Amino acid sequence: MSQETIIVVGNGMVGCKFCATLVEKDADKRFKLITFCEESHPAYDRVHLSEYFSGKTAEDLMLQPESWYAENGIELHLEDKVVSIDREKKSVTSAKGVELVYDKLILATGSSPFVPPVPGIEKEGVFVYRTIEDLEGMMDYAKKATKAAVIGGGLLGLEAAKASQDLGMETHVIEFMSRLMPRQVDDAGGEILKGIIEERGLSVHLNKATTNIAGDGKVEAMEFKDGSSLGVDMIIVSAGIRPRDELARECGLEVGPRGGVVVNDNLLTSDPDIFAIGEVALYNNFIYGLVAPGYKMADIVATQLLGGEGAFQGADMSTKLKLIGTDVASFGNIEPKEEHKDIVITDPVRGIYKRLITTTDGKLLLGGILIGDADAYGNLLQMTLNEMELPEDPMALILPAGSGEAPSFGPGSLPDTAQICSCEDVSKGSICEAIEGGARTIPELKSCTKAGTGCGGCVPLLTNLLNHQLEEMGEEVNTDLCEHFSHTRQELYRIVRTTGIDNFDSLIEAHGNGGRGCEICKPAVGSILASVYNDKVISQGNRKLQDTNDRFLANIQKNGTYSVVPRVPGGEITADKLITIGEVSKEYDLYVKITGGQRIDMFGAKVNDLPKIWEKLIAAGFESGHAYGKALRTIKSCVGSTWCRFGVQDSTGMAIMLENRYKGIRSPHKLKSAVSGCTRECAEAQSKDFGVIATENGWNLYLGGNGGMKPRHADLFATDLDDDTLVAYIDRFLMYYIKTADKLTRTSVWVDSLEGGIEHLKDVIINDSLGLCEELDKQMQHLVDTYHCEWKDAVEDPEKLKRFKHFGNSESTDPNIKFVRERDQIRPANEDELATV
Amino acid sequence: MSDIVENGTWQEIGPTDDFVVDLGVCVQNGDDQVAVFRLAEDEWYATQNLCPHQKQMVLSRGLTGDVKGEPKITCPLHKRSFSLRSGEFLGEGEMDCLKVYEVKSEAGKVFLKL
Ligand SMILES: Cc1cc2nc3c(=O)[nH]c(=O)nc-3n(C[C@H](O)[C@H](O)[C@H](O)COP(=O)(O)OP(=O)(O)OC[C@H]3O[C@@H](n4cnc5c(N)ncnc54)[C@H](O)[C@@H]3O)c2cc1C
Ligand code: SF4
Ligand code: SF4
């Protein structure tokens, strides 16, 4: 029987493997093998290419000795390249002019490094990292170079960077994306890798797009899109690979839109006599850039040619390698789909990052990444490949041995029956179910459980619960403020503090995601600016950020009218002031009610009347009560030792002093307080954000209490304080809350969410464990010193006064507002009544 | 100087400078009310002032902003958002759309097509 001829184009790792496999299987010598090798060395171990720098020779790296080819009857055309394929004649032509006929053709041309078309990239001193020749060139050039940059922070780029450093050059890694190994790891993992790499003396530059390579003929500097530049005398490009499909393209074989020769399960191209294997083959729209899948392809083609059956069904992309002395492993699918679970642990101190991706139900492992400690790789790979069921807590698989469980605080400790949203009667249990069922954001939870869709009062608790559950499940929590800012309120507060930015437009421009802002970020930023600078909330640039309450310095009610609450510090009021309130209420026909915070609320005021009402109140000595703001509301008090026979301190005096100190300060949420004159606690101080109870020796301070929807007893923070210490502690408590609480979070929820809870607060406020006290004291003093009555400011400024009108084009009030009388006062007309009034 | 068009006339509603960027102003139109919003030097929108949820004349006092680039107004009463371009409700569930009006600024004056 006459032999059939197989020509293998490309004698790289996969082409060579194919030859070896075929020779081994073809006992009857049915096939004659011919291979073209463009390079000057026959196939060598590209995977271990870097070892060429550490002393290995080309011979050491060779997969088969040069004599092997002849010994096995393989015709090797070294340093000769196939330049065309004639599919009709079934022949190939080489650069040296050899023309040979084939029965079957194998394309194993591999890939070439992608070199981005940056101006100047052709200059002397720019290298790629793929062949022994590339490395020889680099070694030669490095003799006169001292500073090198690697373009590309992926796996290969980092390997090239290590090589460059080993050549004695100061080495910089330039990455276009915001993290290293952007395809394999997320931001946290990238951050840890960066740490590891910098520790080894390499410089890492992220978010750098190279726009030009400067130099007179040879590389002298790189210039970046952000205007910066870096002086270097050598550049190694490692920006990805491109399949070498040029031959296939020219002879009309089907190629993918982004390159690669399209193959089917049999690894056949669109021509039934031509196979493609290795990095040039595009299977299922995917290029397998690793050697193992290529070897598998080689084996399948050899098997088929010898009459056996074989089909390629994709290959595992798992790898474990040492990158710059650090274990890096990835296995299975590392590009999770949205429905998958993502479990991440990071330890920046020890340089460890581990990430597992599981199915939605958490039962099966789909893939993962291990950096810094890849001991679990083998086990995890097995679990993935064999679809073994995961243990209850997959996290345990990647936790270092012996680490205990973190103590739980806050929403974790609530029973499942706990009602979270009272409007819609939604329990913790049903919310957790929804989270397990895939809800990941508050809007999603709202639409599937209805929780938080009523008054919205439960949203902070809902948020806490969601974050807690997600953390439990090991998922990353999205804490972005809104679509306009990928920061939490706390981060924005810090940004404002450190950058000195004092307006919304600059903040969204420099630290936002573009756009105009929204009802979430505008008031949040408005509040932050007020907390930091204490500028007027309705001054020019700030006014547009405020919700209607802050914008009109009054509380909007259901019919669009406002209520007016003057400050009554400590609940102490004179007869004259009471008379003024009576007169004003009578004149403007306002509904009057005593509030729970020991003051008086006047309802039903029309926008147009607000300034006139304030003027009268101010004239009688009143100030704004900030009932409209996320700010201090009231400090209730009992009469204490002044009148009460049980009282041991002047609780009213203390309440007035504290209220005057903290009035007007903007915070993440409203603040309430109370002072009681003895332990009988008539002022209910333990249900307040900060509560003070008199003792024989001074004052006990309670923090983090709340009444309302989710009552919480305040925690005892310190006992028997003198006046000055009491004030100092409250100062720090409030500033620390303003600094670190999320938006619209009451102190009760905040204290529970702090790791260590009240004990942590004691550490920070009493022992100054974070070294923050001086800063907090100073910041509070600034707020106290810059207090202003917002009503007074408004009535004295004609520009601001202009805004207190219902219509822009007329002085009338809103004719749609209708009242009826009930128990001798007004109230908004309901729908049925509207027709009749 | 009103310019008669197909289904309305341009009516002058005040000097351009009276409209603060990013804020709304309520305009009286007989018994009806229109909320006019200026989102940039020369970017104008106008909708009915009535919030379709609570049936109160309050939209002009809401916060403006955008959701994925779509300019919107958020009602001050219950934070319902509506597109300023189409008047469409941007939240979950059922809610009437807002009526939208044409508005422009010319030679220092603002005109609303009523
Ligand atoms: C520095 C480095 C480190 C790597 N590390 C790893 C690793 O740790 N793990 C891993 O799995 N993979 C690694 N890889 C990838 C691995 O080397 C490739 O997946 C593998 O070499 C692909 O084999 P191939 O035969 O398809 O292509 P190649 O090995 O590139 O061989 C193709 C050959 O064909 C030749 N050729 C092309 N066109 C023609 C033509 N027209 N005529 C004749 N000859 C032609 C080329 O010159 C080349 O010699 C690494 C790669 C590099 C560069
Ligand atoms: S518990 Fe949830 S919230 Fe309330 S009153 Fe509320 S929405 Fe309503
Ligand atoms: S708390 Fe004590 S001091 Fe104050 S009223 Fe009650 S009993 Fe009197």
Overview of this structure, please?
The complex is a heterodimer of chains A (837) and B (114). Chain A has 837 residues and is of the alpha/beta class. Helix content of chain A is 31%, strand content 21%. In chain A, strand 11 (170-174), helix 6 (187-199) and strand 12 (203-205) form a beta-alpha-beta unit. In chain A, helix 1 (13-25) packs parallel to helix 8 (291-305), helix 10 packs across helix 12 (459-472) and helix 21 (723-740) crosses helix 24 (773-785). The longest helix of chain A has 18 residues, at 723-740. Chain A is elongated and about 120 Å long. The model of chain A is unreliable at 401-409 (pLDDT under 50). Chain B has one domain (4-113): Rieske Iron-sulfur Protein, CATH 2.102.10.10. Helices cover 0% and strands 53% of the residues of chain B. In chain B, the strands form 4 sheets. Chain B has a 4-stranded antiparallel β-sheet, with no helix packed on it. A 4-stranded antiparallel β-sheet of chain B has the order 3-4-5-11, with no helix packed on it. Chain B has 114 residues and is an all-beta fold. In chain B, strand 4 (32-40) and strand 5 (43-48) form a beta hairpin. The model of chain B is unreliable at 1-6 (pLDDT under 50). Classes of the chains: A alpha/beta (837), B mainly beta (114). The A-B interface holds A 443, 446-447, 456, 483-484, 515-519, 521-523, 543-544, 547-549, 551-552, 556, 558-560, 802, 806-810, 812, 814-817, 831 and B 13-14, 18-23, 25-28, 31, 33, 36, 39, 54-58, 61-69, 71-72, 74, 76-77, 79, 81, 92. Flavin-adenine dinucleotide binds next to helix 1, strand 2, helix 5, helix 8 and strand 22 of chain A.
